[in-house]
Design a protein that fits this description.
alpha/beta; Nucleotidyltransferase, domain 5; seven-stranded mixed β-sheet
Length: 497
């Protein structure tokens, strides 16, 4: 069993020993936004979503609980959960999208500097997203809660804890915490001191694909799982996606357009610090490898937001809304007749690292229709992708192909836009529930079904039809991309107001 604990949905899937999909289930949920720049979700509700998906999988597969040999979790990163001394959640989880800790991030940046943060954690900047910033915010703004905190954990740790009773995590997910030294998989002492966290408040770290324990009685009753099922340390969702798609060896460049946009390239070495072109380079699930991971906070979630708010005729059928949006986007010329969008509905990550950034439509005229706005969103995400691929090229990485995953890979229209904007051919990787499969393969490694992660993923990469860039659109998209860059630079001072 592989469970993908995503930002706005939980997905689960069962696979047999030959890696064939048996059953899958998806459960969407809505995050809480109690105040500006705050994004939360109740920790107990995460557990309920997990249990509901687990029970649904068993029912769909008509499987006996004892048939589930092992499970692992593919998890969103940076979502922080705090427990008291009695192991009860203290308030809601602070979701990774939350930007309340901007001041604290700036304070930590002033103490350590970006270079030290990068060389220890692999993160290009010190931002409000990282758990270190969030914990310092709690120390400054919720001192009573901070004093009573017994444990700090990320979402995967919380689910493992509920399943097994063991306070354990893994270093691939904790890489972006700014608390972990990614080269040693040990906690960064100076950052612990600055944030006021002790080692005892943080989980035991196990390598990805390592057995954690079996399902305890209470969890078995709630999830429908057998007590004999082995729980294995999983990995970051982006890592699990690439494992499940069969892309683990150095050399390939992948883009995933899900709720956020992620661009990853696996390397056999750690990229040296470049002050003028910082990147994120963090530890891979495979020991000794690193992943250049460039990510942008809002991509597919912008299209989902627009579908819900501006396609009300499809309020009960999101798939039908997306189908109509693809048709609408195809009816609008490249460049959207001058309409430009900034898709930063929850701040901007790589390469702007600007938590104050906002979403913007610019250049609106009476000739623009709903279809123009739809295409403008797709083009804006393609422009974010180009910024990231340009950054990879600046590091000396050479490629002319992007392997594509996530919901965006199912849209030929969006893929075509991305191809012409980036100048790369786009190849969809056809993988059934790649994030869930990646987690399930790690579970298989943990119980000895596979000797290692590379073997588990070998031969899985199934390619769809390549989509080539249209050279005739290059002048148009170069001009539109220039507008996109100029718009952000012009508005950047106002985002800080």
């Amino acid at each position: 069993m592989g469970i993908d604990a995503g930002t706005t949905s939980f997905k689960g899937a069962l696979f047999d020993e030959k890696r064939r999909l048996i059953a899958s289930h998806r459960l969407d949920y809505t995050l809480l936004t109690p105040a500006p720049d705050q994004v939360e979700y109740p920790a107990e509700e995460y557990w309920k979503r997990f249990a509901e998906v687990s029970r649904a999988l068993l029912e769909k597969a008509n499987a006996a609980p004892e048939e589930i040999e092992a499970l692992a979790i593919s998890s969103q990163a940076e979502t922080l959960i705090v427990l008291d001394e009695n192991d009860r959640p203290m308030g809601n989880a602070i979701v990774w999208l939350d930007n309340r800790a901007v001041k604290e991030a700036d304070e930590l940046k002033a103490v350590f500097g970006c270079r030290a943060v990068y060389e220890r954690s692999g993160q290009a900047d010190m931002v409000a997203t990282w758990p270190a910033s969030k914990i310092l915010w709690l120390r400054r703004n919720r001192p009573e809660l901070f004093k009573k905190a017994g444990k700090y954990m990320l979402l995967e740790d919380w689910l493992i804890f509920r399943l097994t009773g063991r306070f354990a995590g893994e270093p691939n997910l904790w890489a972006s915490s700014a608390i972990l030294d990614i080269h040693t998989a040990e906690w960064w002492p100076e950052m612990l001191s600055e944030t006021g966290v002790t080692r005892e408040q943080l989980p035991e770290l196990l390598p990805c694909g390592t057995r954690v324990g079996t399902v305890r009685a209470e969890a078995a009753e709630q999830t429908g799982l057998a007590r004999s099922t082995v729980v294995v340390a999983g990995a970051l969702d982006q890592t699990c996606n690439t494992i499940g798609a069969g892309v683990t060896l150095p050399g390939s460049v992948c883009e995933t357009t899900g709720s956020c946009l992620a661009v990853s390239a696996t390397l056999p070495y750690f990229v040296p610090w470049h002050e003028n072109r910082p990147v994120t380079c963090q530890n891979h699930a495979v020991p000794g490898r690193y992943t250049v991971l460039l990510w942008s906070q809002s991509a597919g979630m912008v299209l989902k937001w627009f579908a819900k708010e501006f396609y009300p005729e499809f309020s009960t059928d999101l798939d039908a809304a997306f189908a109509r949006m693809n048709l609408d986007a195809a009816s609008v010329p490249a460049g959207c007749d001058g309409l430009t969008m900034l898709p930063h509905l929850n701040g901007a990550s790589n390469p702007e690292f600007d938590p104050r950034a906002k979403g913007v439509f610019c250049g609106v005229t009476l000739r623009h229709s709903r279809a123009h706005f739809t295409r403008a969103i797709m083009e804006a995400v393609a422009f974010m992708l180009r910024r990231n691929t340009d950054q990879l090229c600046s590091l000396g990485t050479r490629f002319d192909t992007l392997y594509s995953m996530g919901g965006g890979a199912r849209s030929p229209q969006w893929m075509s836009i991305k191809a012409s904007v980036t100048g790369c051919r786009m190849i969809p990787l056809i993988a059934s529930e790649s994030g869930c499969l990646g987690a399930a393969l790690l579970a298989g490694v943990g119980v000895g079904r596979f000797p290692d992660i590379d073997t588990a993923a070998h031969g899985l990469a199934v390619q769809g039809d390549a989509i080539m860039p249209d050279p005739s659109l290059k002048p148009c998209y170069d001009e539109a991309y220039g507008r996109y860059l100029a718009l952000y630079e012009a508005l950047k001072p106002y985002f800080a107001l």
